[in-house]
Design goal:
heterodimer, A: 98 residues, two-stranded antiparallel sheet, 3 helices, B: 485 residues, Amidase signature (AS) enzymes, 39% helix
Chain lengths: 98, 485
């Protein structure tokens, strides 16, 4: 796979997937910087990875279980204290549906 | 009372505290005075909790008086500002979390509290631990105490500079690709990244969850072992925590490395500053003189580590940072518009340039059409890098490399070139990819700036790397160097 330089549309598309707002200037800077960085990824094409399993974590712990025991949660007020907007015991958000 | 208490190591302070020659309140006040004197130039702290520290010191003095002492009791320290502290802001040096006050403590903080240590405050860092110079802090850059025009390294630049400048006796940092070891190297102190899973990550603000690990930044190797004793151990609240019984790491500090087999992987010496390479040669000769065997070896997959890291770490970061949507905590844009526009604005104004760069990179690598080519490919090469280390450790007890390819660079020198900045972690990144432990030790000066030597061990071989570090330290004076401020 070759690494084409990213277009402005592609940068905007990636930002949209993440819901990350970017200024026109940021888009242009990222277009060139991300293209440079991604170009450096091409070195991995040299590596033969046939039959090599992927590694997600370096410790191979599996099925970590704990007893199904009820525990006291953090106090509600402590959690809501950080809420940017609240209404009673709820986080207040803008309307999801118009 | 001895003067310059801020210059003490943990073990020196601990002796004076236990024998009641000094009190923790005196020691804590001395460190606060030192902060007042040098912090305007170093800028290593995001938050200083002086009153709280003095209260903790008073409690520690009471505990010590009752004989309930630990190695860290009454000893003032700094926490990198990505470890959650109940009731004390935890900002990750980001606008996003500038006003975030955690409702709970990280496991390491609970462990330090249980050991009666004194927390002086929270250390500056690259925003969300993304960076190698601490210039990505949304608040201000930290300055290297050896030369204030230079960077302290990163992302734990605040903790490293604070220890070097005597603004705390020790610090905790986090290391995802070198963020403890590289700043330790650039600031002339000892920094250890333990085996992945040895220290709980519960309450550590996540950057790249398969790579992040908490570890100590200290003035010498003995202190590193003492801090590791306090923070290591299984934690049911971290599902990647290794179920292992506690150990006393100070038992490894024997000073004897006769017969130890050291491998020197040549790839880590290619393209580095020739004076750093020369310093490393001298250090290796010293280890040989102490009875170790030193042999050149090769780890050919090293050259792929940087690409693997800059695919995996941003991918994990993009997933982890998706939680900052302005709803439950953190910065939240309140401008007019839809919920989606608010979310976009929240991230646009809450995150700085490097965080945005990595989010974009990770989102790209995980997006349809690229997932197999980049993310899965990188995970497969990760397997090969790990295997190569495993094979190497069948032959060698430790591997030794420089920690950083150069000494501290000038502030601003690499800010416009992300690829150059990323290269400053080229010697430390492979270790996170493999999840193995490594320690950086002061090994010399080049042009008046510290050079760090990295000792790498197999999984859970912290004792071996501490033993090597301690033996080297006993035979040299580099760990006693302090910058003039």
């Amino acid at each position: 796979m070759t690494s084409p330089r990213l277009s402005q549309d592609e940068v905007q598309h990636i930002a949209l997937i993440y819901r990350l707002g970017l200024s026109r200037e940021e888009i242009e800077n990222l277009r060139s910087q991300l293209s440079d960085i991604i170009e450096n990824f091409q070195v991995l094409e040299q590596v033969d990875t046939t039959d090599i399993p992927p590694t997600g974590h370096s410790v191979t712990l599996e099925n970590v279980m704990r007893p199904d025991k009820a525990d006291s949660p953090l106090p509600k007020e402590d959690i809501l204290a950080n809420a940017p907007r609240r209404e009673g015991d709820y986080f207040r958000v803008k309307a999801v549906l118009d | 009372m001895p003067s310059n208490l801020h210059n003490l190591t943990i073990h020196e302070a601990s002796e004076l505290l236990a024998s009641r020659q000094i009190s923790s309140q005196e020691l804590t006040q001395a460190v606060l005075d030192r902060i007042e004197h040098v912090e305007p130039r170093v800028k290593s702290y995001v938050t200083i909790t002086g009153d709280l520290a003095l209260q903790q010191a008073q409690k520690a003095d009471t505990a010590i008086a009752k004989g309930e002492t630990t190695a860290l009791a009454g000893v003032p320290m700094q926490l990198k500002d990505n470890m959650c502290t109940l009731g004390v802001p935890t900002t990750c040096s980001s606008r996003m979390l500038e006003n975030f006050v955690p409702p709970y403590n990280a496991t390491v903080v609970e462990k330090l509290n249980a050991a009666s240590t004194v927390v002086i405050g929270k250390g500056n860092m690259d925003e969300f631990a993304m960076g190698s110079s601490t210039e990505n802090s949304a608040f201000f850059p930290t300055h290297n105490p050896w030369d204030l025009k230079r960077v302290p390294g990163g992302s734990s630049g605040g903790p490293a500079a604070a220890v070097a400048a005597g603004e705390c006796l020790y610090a905790l940092g986090s290391d995802t690709g070198g963020s403890i070891r590289q700043p330790a190297s650039l600031c002339g102190i000892v920094g250890m990244k333990p085996t992945y899973g040895l220290v709980s990550r519960y309450g550590l603000v996540a950057f790249a969850s398969s790579l992040d690990q908490i570890g100590p930044l200290t003035k010498d190797v003995t202190d590193s072992a003492l801090v590791l004793n306090a923070i290591a151990g299984h934690d049911p609240r971290d599902s990647t925590s290794i179920p292992q019984a506690a150990k006393d790491y100070t038992k490894a500090l024997t000073g004897n490395i006769r017969g130890l087999k050291i491998g020197v992987p040549k790839e880590y010496y290619e393209g580095i500053d020739p004076k750093v390479a020369q310093t490393m040669r001298i250090a290796l000769e010293k280890l040989e003189a102490l009875g170790a065997s030193v042999e050149e070896t090769s780890l050919p997959h090293t050259k792929y580590a940087l690409a693997v890291y800059y695919i995996l770490a941003p991918s994990e970061a993009s997933a982890n940072l998706a939680r900052y949507d302005g709803v439950k905590y953190g910065y939240s844009s309140q401008e007019d518009g839809s919920i989606w526009e608010a979310m976009e604005k929240t991230k646009q104004h809450g995150f700085g340039p490097e965080v945005k760069r990595r989010i974009m990179l990770g989102t790209y690598a995980l997006s349809a059409g690229y997932y197999d080519a980049y993310y899965i490919k990188a995970q497969k090469v990760r397997t090969l890098i790990s295997r190569e280390f495993q094979e190497s450790f069948q032959k060698y007890d430790v591997l030794i490399t420089p920690t950083s390819p150069s000494t501290a660079f000038n502030l601003g020198a690499k800010m416009d070139d992300p690829v150059q900045m990323y290269l400053s972690d080229v010697c430390t990144i492979p270790i996170n990819i493999a999840g193995i432990p490594a320690i950086s030790l002061p090994a010399g000066l080049v042009g008046g700036l510290p050079v760090g030597m990295q000792v790498i061990g197999k999984p859970l071989a912290e004792e071996t790397i501490l033993r090597v570090g301690y033996a080297y330290e006993q035979a040299t004076e580099w760990h006693k160097m302090r910058p003039e401020l």
